[in-house]
Amino acid sequence: MHEQIEKIKEIVLGVWAKKHYVIISTWLLCPIGWLGVTTLPDQYESSARVYVDTQSLLRPLMKGLMVETDPNTQIRLMIKTLLSRPNLERITRMTDLDLTAKDSEEFEAVIARLKEKINIESVGRENIYTLSISETDPQLAKNIVQAALSVFIENTLGETRSDTDTAQQFLQQQIADYEERLVLAEKRLTEFKQKYSGIMPDNSNGFYAALDNSKRLLKATNLQLLETQTRLSSARSQLVKENSLKSQISDNVIEQDSITTTYDDSIISLQANLDNLLISYTEQHPDVREMTRRLSELKSLRRKEIENYYSNADTSPDSGGNSSNKSQVYQAMKIQVNQLESEVASLRVRSQDYQNQVDELNTKIHILPEIEAELVGLNRDYDINKKKFEELLSRRETASMAKQADATSDKIQFRVIDPPRAPLHPTGPYRILLSLAVLVIGVGAGIGAAILMIQLNPKVISATQLNRSTNLPIFGVIAASENLHLRAIYKKQTRHFHLSNLMILLILFAFIGYFLAPELIQPQLKRIF
Questions:
Q1: Dihedral of CA 131/136/140/144: which sign?
Q2: pTM for this entry
Q3: Residue 110 and residue 131: Cα distance in Å, rounded?
Q4: Opening angle at CA 343, ends 341 and 344, nearest 5
C-alpha cells in the first residue's frame, strides 16, 4: 500500500514538474470550447399535457350487450405507435417541415430528427401524458407539439371506429359465406331425402327403432288375433248349443246378456239384498228366509216368461218350421259371431301388413344403416352451419350496437390540460455546465499530456524513485546549489501557472456572466466592438 502511495505521489510531482503542459492545453482548448458553447443556438422547449378519460358512462350500461375493448390497452398501443413512420410524415406535413427538405435524404433526416426529439411520457398512475420537443424556433416547437397531439387524438379515436368497421366487414363476409354453406347443406339434404324417400324409415328414431316397432306391433296384432279367434270359437260353440238345446231352460239363463225379461231388475236387486243379509245373518233368519222365498218366486216367473216366449216363437205362423233361427237369442248370438269373424279378418289383414313391413325392413337391414348414417352426417353439417350462421347474425347485431354506441358517445375522451405554447425563454443548452465541462476537459488534457511526457522522457523526482529504477543503494541527497538559480526558476514557473489559471478562471466567469445576463453584457460589447 505504501509503495502505491509513493507511485501516486511521484506521478503528481511529475505532473507538477511539467505543469506548463496544463497551461498550454487550457489556453488552447478552453477559449475555443467556450466560444463554441456561446455559438450554440438557443433551445426552446414546448410541451402539452393531455388527460385521457376512459371512464365512459355508457360502458357499464351496455355491459353484456356489446363487445368491449380495453381502452387503456388501446391508448398504450397508440403511444407506442405515435412515432411510427406514417405519423411522423403527417406531423412533418402539418408543420411544413417537408418544405425545408430539398431531396429525399434531407426529408429522411427531418423524419429522423423528429423521431429523436419528440418525447411522450406518462405522468403518474393517471392517464395523463406529456408531449414535448426542443427546437431552436419557439413557434416551430409549439407547432410540432400541436401536430403530434392532434395525430395522437385522431389516431386513437379513428382506430376505435376503424376496428368497429373492420369487425362488421369481417362478420358480414362470414355471414355471406355461412349462408352459402347453409343453402348448399339444405340442397344436399333435400336431394338426399328425395332420392331415398321410398326406403327411408318413417320413425325418426332410426332404422332399428322402426324395425323393433314393427315387430312389436306385429306381436300385439297376432296376440289380439288369437284372442279374437278364441272368442269366435266360443261364440260358434254357443250358437250350435243354442240351436240344438233351445228348449232346455235353466237358472243360468239369467246370466245370458242377450235374454232380457221384466223380472231381471227385481231379481238382481233381491239377490244383492240377500247377499247383504247373509253377511250379517244366517239362512234361518226370518228376513233371509222371506227374501229367499221372494227371489225363488221371481225366478219362477222369469222362467215361465222365457218358456212362453219360446213357445210363442215355435208356434208362430212365420217361423216356417225353423223357429230357432227366428229367436232373439239365436239372432243376437249370430250377430256376435259375424262381428267376431269380421274382426278376425281385419286383424289378419293388419297382421299381414305388419309382417310385410318386418320382412321389408329385414331385407333392407344392410342398406338402411348406411343411408341413415349419411343422413345423420348431412343433418350434422346442416345443424353446425345453421348454428354458426345464427351466432354470426347475433354477433353482427352486437357489433352494430357497439358502432352505434361509439357514434353516440366516445368511449375515450381527451381533455387537454396544458395546451402547447410558444416558449418565451430558452430552456437550453446548459451553457454553464458545458463551460465547466470544457474547463475540465482542458485541464484533463494538460494532465494527460504531462503524464505522457513523463512516460516518454522520465525524470527522477525522489531518491526512492532512483533507487527503484537503478537498484543501487542511496547513501544521501545533496541539495542544489544556489548558484544554479533553480529555486528562482521554480518560483517563476509557479507564478506563471497561477497567473494562467487565474486568467482562465476570469475568462470563464466572463462567459458565465454573459450566459446569465446577456441583455446586460451584449450592449457593452457592442459599444466596444
A1: negative
A2: 0.45
A3: 18
A4: 65
